[in-house]
Every structure is written in structure tokens, then in C-alpha cells.
Amino acid sequence: MSDHSTFYKIRRKGQVLANRLTSYEFMSKVYYYIKFKKVLNLKNPSTFNEKIQWLKLRNFPYNQLVIDCTDKYEVRDYVENHGGKKYLNKLIGVWDSWEDVNWEELPNKFALKCTHGCGYNIIANDKSILNKQEVEKNIKKWMSEDFSLFNAEQHYTSIKPRIICEEHLGEDIIDYKFFCYNGKPLFFYMAQGFGHGKNERMAFYNLDGSKAPFKRKDYKEFSDEVKQPENLDEMIKISENLSKEFPFVRVDFFEVNKEVIFSEMTFTPGGGLMTIEPNEYDQIWGEWLNLESVM
């Protein structure tokens, strides 16, 4: 076991214990201060990260639509009901526990996910060489976890843990993630390598495909110019349709064989702890996020 893996496991256990002994709000303030070296302002939030923190504490845990759209299975109904059925990846199966999964009936390539958190994914490029025991160990561990306790994202605790299997879309494909404010996508970022644990890279773009004047401090950008998605206009249109009921949501897609595939909807990117550079864009993004409809 690597030192990094050991530290990660110790940190996660510490986060769970601390959250259980205190509260979501207390731990949010602690994480925010550690990250930004300043006190979290929940009375009058102004920056993007402050407003995400406010939403995750004051609105999202009590908003059933947010909870359903965070759920990687339930969100499929929302997308279908908003005219997006053709963008959904093929669903192979959904189960309440690992014991319900028939391993032999799974195809040779698939994507296995738990519905109640982030990073709970197993991408099988070749089932014949996949360690079934290791998959079972990971799935059972994830199914037993309350994801909300790791970064004080309370709305995750209301999601029923389930396992879904979707069609395999390819190896190391690019994510297209659209930041939508009060129903309007304003910019997006492309990301690759996430979930594989290596060579993670990303970059922000304006809706016309030009490079945006900001970035994440904690991730490397692409070293070369990256080709824009062929269906960029279509992704923008879908994002607008799916986001119109929320003050903020990030809508994610893949593009496979020139077709748009819906990925997920994320309401608390980075847990409300995104390090944006230059720093003033935290304030600028915050000005775009209007909380009047939910305050």
C-alpha cells in the first residue's frame, strides 16, 4: 500500500468521525477555512464557493429534486422527462446489493457504478481479466459508506445506495462539464484521466469554444490544444433545458461516435472548495449565481 493510499484512508476515516461528532455546518466551516484561510460567510455569501456552501447546507439537503438528480439512477427519469431520453447511456442493470448482481450475465465490457456518491466507479475494459473478488470488495465497501460524511455534502445521505451497470463507452474519454447558473450554461470544462488515477488534466472554455481566462489551481491543464466537441451547440441546449429548475448545477456529457451521452448532474463541484485562479473569479462566478429564488 502506498503512503498516499494510506494517508487517504486515514483522512477519510477522520472526516467521517469528525462529521459524526460535530455537524455538517461545523465541518463545512472547518474545510473552508483550511482551504481558503478565511472564515466562511453563510449570512451573506458572495463568492461562488460560499454560495455553494450555503446551498449544500440550507437548500440541497431538503430539496428532493436535487437529491433525485444527484442520484445516478433516479436522474435518468429527470433527463427522460425533460426530453433527453436519447442521450441516456444504455442501462444494463440496477441492483440493491452486490448479492443481486449476476456476474456471469454482465457483458465483457461495462461501467459499474454506485448511485450514492462520486468516484464509486469500475470501468471494465475486459471482464475476463478483471479481478472479481477485488470488484466485490470495492462495491461492498462503497455500498456501506455514507458519502455525505466525507466533505459535509448532506444531500448525499438521502440517496438510496444502489448499483447500476451501464454500457461501456470507451477508455479514458473526455468529459464535458457545463456550469449552469439559474438555467443558463455560461462556460464548461473538458476533463480527461479522472477516475483512472493518472495523468488527470482539464481546461475551461467559453461557450464559443475559446479558452476561458481562469483555471483550477489543483489540476494540470491540457498540454496541447484540445479539439472541441462536434456537438457543442447541442450540449449547450441540453444543459439549458436540464438546469432551468436550479440556481446552480453542473451538467456533464460524453461524446462517443459523434453522439452526445449524458453523464451526470453535480450540484456541489469540489464540495464548494474549488480553488479558482485568478482568485477574483471566485467572486465573479458568485455574482452569476443568484440565490434569491431559494433564500
- The low-confidence runs, each spanning 5 or more residues with pLDDT under 50, are none
Number of strands: 11
Given helix and strand content, the structural type is alpha+beta
Biggest sheet features: 5 strands, antiparallel
Strand content: 15-25%
**Approximate shape:** globular
Mean pLDDT: 93
- Helix fraction by DSSP (H/I, runs of at least 4): 25-40%
SSE topology string: HHHHHEEEHEEEEEHEEEH
Walk across the major sheet and give the strand order: 7-6-5-9-10
Number of helices: 8
How far from one another are the termini? 46 Å
Structure, explained:
There is one protein chain. The chain contains 8 helices and 11 strands. The chain has 295 residues and is an alpha+beta fold. It has a domain of 40 residues. The chain has a 5-stranded antiparallel sheet with strand order 7-6-5-9-10. Strands 1-4-2-3 form a 4-stranded antiparallel sheet, covered by helices on one side. Strand 6 and strand 7 form a beta hairpin. Helix 3 crosses helix 8.
Secondary structure topology:
Layout (H helix, E strand, L loop, with lengths): L2 H19 L2 H13 L11 H11 L5 H7 L4 H7 L9 E5 L14 E5 L6 E4 L7 H12 L19 E5 L7 E7 L2 E9 L8 E6 L8 E2 L15 H12 L4 E9 L2 E8 L9 E2 L2 H9 L7
Antiparallel strand pairs: 1-4, 2-3, 2-4, 5-6, 5-9, 6-7, 8-11, 9-10
Helix pairs in contact: 3-8
